[in-house]
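Question (not urgent): is this output format expected?
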Amino acid sequence: MQANNFAGKTIGLMVASGFDEDQFIAIQRAMLAKTAKLKIISRDAGLTNSWNGTGWGMSYPVDSTLSTTLAIDYDALIIPTGARHVDTLMNEVHAKRVLRAFLREGMPVMMQGEAIRLLDLVEDHAARSIDAKDENAEVAVDKNLVQIPLAVKLESGLEKLNVVMVASADESQAA
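Got this back:
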């Protein structure tokens, strides 16, 4: 990444138990290397569990529950891949509320892999979601929304999110 637009920013990682552990750790490492403040937002209170491909993985402390989360408290939202956690979030009214708030306010959002399905919760959002499993798909950017298909490296999506963070900061300064 060229400029570091994550430094000092508060980034929410929205999950439910069953998120992909490897991708979560990769996001965590990348954001911590850029000195971002990461906050885990989950429907689970206390701890939330990852999925390591064959079974339950590590547990992670939750910073904020979905039911109490406000978009205004964050600079960006990242939703990692993981079919199990996406299935849970699809049925979570507060996940819909939080995602809609980020998109409505033009705040940066990055969705990875299966998480792209969550756009189905936001009927009024104009972005067309990409097919997360399409091996020929590329990172898609629509204003403040970055969608990363499964076949694309996380770093490519984070670079796009970095650019979106610049545009978002410019718009908020202009307002």
